[in-house]
Amino acid sequence: VQLQESGPGLVKPSQTLSLTCAVSGGSITTSYPVSWIRQPPGKGLEYIGYIDLTGSTYYSPSLKSRASISRDTSKNQVTLQLNAVTPEDTAVYYCMKGMDYWGKGTLVSVSS
User: Which residues contact 68 (CB under 8 A, 6 or more apart)?
Assistant: First the structure.
């Protein structure tokens, strides 16, 4: 199973960050949920949320009001949207399937 994150590397404050996780070698509707996590510069990993095999979602309480995870089963892709971003949302964003399969991550900077 391989995962690849994609999206803009730079987002302006107050805008919406949108990232896509393309999954190959396995279906997003089988085995394990697809999760999003992030790592701000110099800080530890932060869990954002997941979408499970049925399409149900869970979000970290700290990001629940701004995060949205969805999927396109025809493309085998999962999308993360984060609204009203601030510079504190600058991080490397990863998608993962279960605990064993991770994407390489994509750096998103929030700056005007």
Answer: 57, 80, 81, 82, 83
Give the confidence band of 99 by pLDDT, cuts at 50, 70, 90: confident
3-state secondary structure of 88: helix
- Picking from 14, 35, 25, the residue whose alpha carbon sits closest to that of residue 89 is 14
pLDDT averaged over every residue in the chain: 96
The torsion angles phi and psi of 88, rounded to 5 degrees, stand at -70, -10
Enumerate residues 6+ apart whose C-beta is below 8 A from 107: 9, 91, 92, 93
Which three-class secondary structure state does DSSP give residue 49?
Answer: strand
**Residue 77 pLDDT class (50, 70, 90 cuts):** very high
